[in-house]
Amino acid sequence: MILYKSHPVFMLSQMSCYRLQNILTALPACINITYSPQPCYFTFTSPPSNNFRVLCYQVKKMEAGHHDLSKVTVVGDPQLLQKKIDAVRLAGPSKLQVIADFDGTLTKYFVNGRRGQSSHGILKQGNAEYDDKRQALYEYYHPLEFSPTIPIHEKTKLMEDWWGKTHNLLIEGGLTYDAIKESVSSSAIAFRDGVVELFEFLEKRDIPVLIFSAGLADIIEEVLRQKVHRSFKNVKTVSNRMVFDNDGRLISFKGKLIHSLNKNEHALEMAAPVHEHFGDGDGPINDNASVKKRTNVLLLGDHLGDLRMSDGLDYETRISAGFLNDNIENNLVDYRKAFDVVYLNDAPMWGVVKLVSQMCSKVN
User: Fold this and answer.
1) CATH assignment of 66-110+191-279+290-360, given 3.40.50.1000, 3.40.366.10, 3.40.50.10610, 3.30.565.10?
2) Of 145, 168, 165, which Cα lies nearest the Cα of 261?
3) Which of 73, 157, 178, 293 has the most crowded CB, counting CB atoms within 10 A?
4) Residues in the chain, pLDDT under 70
5) Annotated active-site positions, please?
């Protein structure tokens, strides 16, 4: 609590603010709520009651308990994980980079009790005919993507067809950047609690974050702008990027097509200099030394295939964190074998925040 103009100011974290949102309507009118966007501030036109002080204290306790993720954290080999953490810590933050999937990894799997949307799924062209055509493609190809009976080479070709047809429909349907902004604004997509804190922690230590997605870079970056309300100098999006004309209308896509099954083919593009090329997808990137010299990797994903995102990078130590959001009983054995640590049930990002803090702590 801080006194400001004779009135106390309660500073609460973003998570605490979320928890208070459902209570605010019952609070007295003398309270003025100001969001910063984080932390949010509660100021008073008259001294607050002891009841509100108790409420703030209870919410802070709830928040502290919420960070205990022991019941949703699974580590297959604790000794190996600790050995990797120690190796990364010994090398220092200057050798570390983070590679993260977007949909279902940085974003929540469930939003308000329902399946959250993907960066592709939120897009509405403002043209019902083409929205319906893209939905028809989804209904046809999506089951094929996860079919256990289709050989990988055939499935890869199917994914190329799906992504290519979808991109053509976006161009033919006259997609505009204004439609992208409106789609994000009305979407059911949200970041996991703790993602902003993770990005801030890494930014302070100049640790690059590469968001690698088979979705659409322009949408992902718009989601960051609208949902986080700030940018991070250390974050780069590697995804399918659009080209717009002077009127803001989509005319083409640039670079290689990135779909759900070929992420590993773009590992070298991922290793492009983050600071020099943040948000810039123009032309080929040849100098990848500034990230390739970072030989320790923290990889975040929600599918077993995401583990291949680091293929082609000559890393010394890789720590992989997997988010198993659904169908846990059938998948946990495979996830526990594949990932160094697994977070269950659409868990928040606080476990990863703790993990990177351990990796970046000073060596005694």
Assistant:
1) 3.40.50.1000
2) 145
3) 73
4) 1-67, 266-290
5) 101, 103
